[in-house]
Amino acid sequence: MKLSLPWETDWLSLSDGGFRWGSDVIKASAFGGTLVGLGRPILYGLGADGREGVRRVIAEISGEMTRIMCLVGAVHPDDLCKDMVIEDP
Q: How many domains does the chain have?
């Protein structure tokens, strides 16, 4: 999965705080987020098993993101839009 680099866009949107799952990253991206901070899960992985724990956390979050993108029909993270994660009444 290749994400656009922040400096390749006209603006940068950083979301941080409370993001723990791949679904949280998908929602933030769908609403226009460019970067999402995942500090707590990374620190949990580091505390549990050091470098390997961090690798497992990143692999799990990436895998969840890939599964959700398949479910909503997005091929690339840039294809995500808010209509894919919420329904207008």
A: 1
Q: How many CB atoms lie within 10 A of CB 87?
A: 6
Query: First vs last Cα of the chain: how many Å apart?
Result: 32
Residue 15 forms beta bridges with which residues? 36
At 42, list the tokens: 């990374």
**Burial of 86 (C-beta count, 10 Å sphere; 0-12/13-18/19+):** exposed
pTM for the whole structure: 0.75
Domain annotation covers residue 89: no
Could you give the CA distance from residue 30 to residue 24 in angstroms, rounded to a whole number? 10
10-residue mean pLDDT series, the chain (89 residues):
55 73 88 84 94 95 93 89 78
